[in-house]
Amino acid sequence: MTKVIAFDIYGTLIDTHGVVTRLKEYIGNEAQTFSNKWRDKQLEYSFRRGLMRSYQHFGICTSQALDYTNQLLQTNLSDEQKASLLAEYRILPAFDDVIESLTALKTAGHKMYGFSNGTADAVEGLLSNAGIRDLFDGVVSVDPMQTFKPNPDVYTHMVKTGGASVKDTWLVSSNPFDVIGAATVGMQTVWVQRSKSVVFDPWGVEPTTIVKSLIELPDELQNLGNSL
Predict the structure, then answer these.
(1) Residue 219, CB half-sphere, CA atoms under 13 Å: how many?
(2) Of residues 8, 97, 143, 178, which has the active-site annotation?
(3) 168 given a catalytic annotation
(4) Which residue of 103, 118, 164, 210 pairs with 4 in a disulfide if CB–CB is 3.0 to 4.6 A?
């Protein structure tokens, strides 16, 4: 059965820790710690801005989170180094399992969208740089809604854009908050649990299914299509 599939971008298709190599050049062994804290703060800032109704686009959250992490860890990055890291963030790599999985899903006839807290321009750039833009029917950003995931309005916006019913629209994400947000409005959901150490939030809201890698996704969706 053909589905509308919305793929989260940052952390699901695109590796946000692709900046670690550049960070190692600047701060050495603290690079992974810095990257983890930067990502956590980036998401926290988006959540806070959504709740406060004080929207600034995701690039601002990313830049301010970088400044915060630099101060917190006292890494003394220069303005030029921070600019370089932000430029790197616009060309982050895709995970190794992305091209094979998306190609198989496209061949199967599914309608696919990139769905992100990032602006449309930023997401278009990431997908093009990764060589996967032509596998998508479109890009859906939260930017026109002036808020962020997991606000239910952005998932409703995604459903309307895809043109299918909410029950026939799937979210694929490695971010538990994103999966819970989509499930709450009635979407089907796939949680990509690439690491056993990542824990799903115990909110009593479960994903429709879980995969360890996107390579499993085409077969999993086919099997679920026969049972749902």
Answers:
(1) 7
(2) 8
(3) no
(4) 164
- Side by side, the strands of the sheet bearing 4-8 are 138-141, 111-116, 4-8, 169-173, 188-192, 209-211
Burial 81-95 (b: 16+ CB within 10 A, else e): beebbeeebeebebb
Q: Residue holding tokens 């309608």?
A: 111
CA gap 106, 218 in Å, rounded: 10
Query: Strand pairing partners for 10?
Result: 14
CA dist., res. 68 & res. 72, Å (int): 6
Tens-digit pLDDT profile for residues 72-81: 999 999 999 9
Instruction: Name the residue with tokens 């749902």.
Output: 228
- 144: domain range? 4-14+94-225
CA nearest 108: which of 3, 8, 213, 13? 3
Six-digit token string for 9: 């971008």
pLDDT above 80 for 227: no
